[in-house]
Amino acid sequence: MLDLYGVKVASRLLLGTARYPSPSVLAEAVKRSATEIVTVSLRREAAGGRSGGAFFEMIRQLGVRVLPNTAGCHGVSEAVLTAKMAREVFQTNWIKLEVIGNHDTLQPDVFALVEAARILTSEGFEVFPYTTDDLVVAERLMEAGCKVLMPWCAPIGTAAGPLNPSALRSIRAHFPEMPLIVDAGIGRPSHAATVMELGFDAVLLNTAVAGARDPGIMAEAFAGAIDAGRQAFNAGLLEPRDMAVPSTPVIGKAVFA
Ligand SMILES: CC(=O)[C@@H](O)[C@H](O)COP(=O)(O)O
Predict the structure, then answer these.
(1) Can you give the pLDDT at residue 52?
(2) What pLDDT, in 10s, does the model give residues 49-78?
(3) What are phi and psi of 14, to 5 degrees?
C-alpha cells in the first residue's frame, strides 16, 4: 500500500479531472482506472459546461478522495489563497501545490513553490508540491515540511514522457523513503510503466486519459501499466549489459547414439 500523509491507498494512479468531453466520460474513466484519488482545480473550466458547485458535487459522488490543486496560480499569495479556498470547499488539508513560473512551458516557479509550501505546511496543510526533478529544490521542499514530492517528467500536457530519466533516477536514489509521484507529461502507458520501473511510488496524469479517443479504456490501460511497472520494480529488474549471455547454458556436446 502507498502511504500518503498517513492515508493508505492501493491504487498508484492519481487522475486529473480536467478536459474530459463530458462528466459521464470522466466518471467512467475514474471507475475504470480504479483510482482512489482525483485532483480537482478550484479554477477549473468545467467538463460539459458544469462549473463550480455542480461539478464539485459530481466529484463527491464518485466516492474517491479529492486532492484539490492550485492549477493556474502564478504567485505565492494566489496559490496560498486558492489552497485556503480549496480547504473550505473540499474539507481536506491535502493540497496539490502548483505555482507556475513560465507561460510557455508551464514550468513550476520553484522559488515561489518552496515559499508557498512553507506557509501552507505551517498552517496545517499536507502539501503535494508539483516540482521539477531538481535535487536542491526537493531538499528545500522537504525542509519546508513536504512529506510527498511530485516531480515532473515533462511539461504539463505535452505527453512527451520521461525527458530526463537520469534526473528521475537520481531523485529516487536521494530520497529513498519519501513517497515520490511523477506528475505531468506522461503520454502513454509505457511512459507510466517506465517511471514505475525506476522505483517511483505513483503517477499523476490527466491529459493522456482525458484526450484519448476512449478515455475509459485508456484509464484502464494506464492502471495496468502502473501495476506492471511496480511489480517489475519489486521483482528486481536486470541491468542492461554490453555482452551477450546465452539464455540456455549448455554442458558439453549433444551425443547421438
Ligand atoms: C491535472 C493536473 O494536476 C495537471 O496539472 C497535471 O500536472 C497533469 O499533467 P498532464 O496533463 O500532463 O498529465
Answers:
(1) 67
(2) 456 678 888 888 899 999 999 999 999 999
(3) -110, 135
CA-to-CA distance for 73 and 85, rounded, in angstroms?
13
pLDDT in tens, 132-162: 999 999 999 999 999 999 999 999 999 999 9
Does the annotation list 207 as a binding residue? Answer: yes
Burial level of 112, CB count in 10 A (0-12/13-18/19+)? buried
Per-residue pLDDT at 48 = 46
Q: Is 46 annotated as a binding residue?
A: no
Asked whether 179 lines ligand 1 (CB < 6 A), one says no
Element (H, E) at 41: strand 37-41
Catalytic option among 31, 84, 96, 147: 96
Is residue 211 lining ligand 1, measured as CB closer than 6 Å? no
Tell whether 29 is in a known binding site: no
Query: What is the Cα–Cα distance from 154 to 17, expressed in whole angstroms?
Result: 19
What pLDDT sits at residue 46? 41
Q: Please tell me the predicted confidence (pLDDT) of residue 253.
A: 77
Domains parsed from the chain with CATH numbers: 2-235 (3.20.20.70)
CA dihedral (97, 100, 101, 106) positive or negative: positive
Question: In angstroms, how far is CA 104 from the centroid of its own chain?
Answer: 21
Residue minimizing CA distance to atom 7 of ligand 1: 184
96 flagged as catalytic:
yes
Task: For residue 113, give every residue at least 6 positions away whose Cβ sits within 8 Å of its Cβ, in sequence order, or none.
Answer: 97, 99, 129, 130, 131, 137, 141
Quote the ipTM score.
Answer: 0.95
Residues of the chain with pLDDT under 70: 44-52, 257
